[in-house]
Design goal:
The chain is an alpha/beta fold. It contains 18 helices and 13 strands. Helix content is 49%, strand content 17%. The strands form two sheets. The chain has a seven-stranded parallel sheet with strand order 3-2-1-4-5-6-7, sandwiched between helices. Strand 6 (137-140), helix 7 and strand 7 form a beta-alpha-beta unit.
């Protein structure tokens, strides 16, 4: 069968590549056309647009890059018509993907699967109407998403497990010892505090300076940044100039597994950090300052903003939002993570329960098998 896949971000490229591998294992005649990145390209198929040309977030960014956005939509529609797939598979990235889903469903009559649901349970819940109208099947990666969709009278869902379990289980650096990692990256032999300051320039600019502001209070540790995909080293230079903070690129899991603790800007990284059993404090600073929490409460429909706390439905990790992200607050929380054994151990125990909630690895395989089965049944 022929699969057209859209992944508009770096994480989608990773999950898309793993899904494509499993689709090839399940369907020996699988053909691919996709919008994605380098990892998907290594699996095979026909690439159309790299996700770096699609990563426009927020109204202002979209307006400033409107010509590129419209061109991407046009290229995608043309590729859909030319490739004539058996199914369109969408990976998160709802602003773009739901527009393409409308075209694929209404103009081309294609089957539409969604793998990795948009976070409607957190914001923009109104998009459920589009999901119900355009998406034949939703393959969920969080257990609570099934109940969320059920409450909105959408039952074409299946929980396939979380693909991060696959990515972490298969990481190539698994088992690497600290001295080896340190030598390989020209780091000191001191214990590490990992800094995951976001995947976009705005997030990094808002969060990294505050993270760096506490390093003098922990001289026995070295602070190391996990460089984000698509962000050039020069961008980080202005933040770390005059400090001894180091950066490693394309080694987030390797860095985390060697860290004693981590400061993490909210996002998928919070869940990755937890699944690697690293104590963390979660930050989300923004220019809105004290208005931030008020706007958050207005737009966001969950009591927490980190995935760890959302999934477990309790405050497993400390969350600092907006004006709460201060040097003092970060320093106090990191000190607790490093030096308060009962506090640290309680968090690690909750991580263990989180693992149980998400289940075992194999999400990509189950997703692929489910898709092939659904398509085969539709043909019969």
């Amino acid at each position: 069968m022929k699969y057209f896949i859209i992944a508009g971000e770096a994480s989608g490229d990773l999950h898309g590549a793993n899904l494509m591998r499993e689709l090839k294992n399940t369907d020996r005649e699988a053909e691919f056309c996709f919008l994605g990145g380098d990892m998907m390209a290594t699996v095979g198929g026909t690439p159309q647009i790299h996700y770096r040309q699609m990563a426009f977030m927020g109204v202002i960014s979209v307006i400033l890059n409107l010509h590129t956005v419209l061109r991407n939509i046009s290229v995608c529609k043309k590729a859909l018509r030319s490739f004539s797939p058996d199914v369109l598979i969408l990976i998160d990235y709802p602003s773009f993907n739901l527009r393409i889903a409308k075209y694929a469903k209404e103009k081309l009559g294609l089957k539409v699967f969604y793998y990795i649901s948009p976070k409607l349970w957190a914001w923009k819940e109104y998009r459920i109407k589009q999901i119900k109208a355009l998406v034949d099947n939703m393959l969920c990666i969080f257990p609570f998403e099934i109940e969320f969709y059920k409450k909105h009278n959408y039952t074409q869902t299946v929980y396939v497990g979380n693909p991060l379990m696959d990515a972490i289980e298969s990481r190539p650096e698994k088992g690497e010892q600290f001295p080896t990692f340190a030598r390989r990256n020209k780091l000191e032999q001191k214990p590490i505090v990992a800094l995951l300051s976001g995947s976009r320039k705005k997030e990094i600019a808002d969060n990294l300076p505050l993270m760096i502001s506490i390093i003098s209070q922990f001289p026995e540790y070295q602070f190391v940044i996990a460089g984000a995909p698509g962000i050039m080293p020069d961008y980080y230079s202005k933040f770390i100039k005059g400090t001894n903070v180091k950066i490693v690129f394309e080694q987030t899991y390797a860095l985390l597994q060697q860290a004693s603790a981590a400061l993490v800007t909210s996002g998928t990284a919070t869940l990755e950090t937890a699944l690697l059993n690293i104590p963390q404090v979660v930050t989300y600073n923004m220019e809105l300052g004290r208005l931030g929490p008020l706007l958050y409460n207005y737009f966001i429909h969950t009591p927490y903003f980190s995935l760890v706390n959302i999934i477990t439905d309790k405050p497993v990790v400390k969350e600092l939002l907006g004006s709460q992200v201060t040097t003092q607050a970060l320093s106090q929380e990191l000190d607790r993570l490093l030096n308060n054994s009962p506090y640290r151990n309680k968090m690690l125990h909750e991580y263990h329960l989180l693992h149980k909630l998400l289940g075992t690895s194999g999400a990509s395989r189950k997703a692929a098998e489910t898709m092939v089965k659904l398509l085969s049944n539709a043909r019969d």
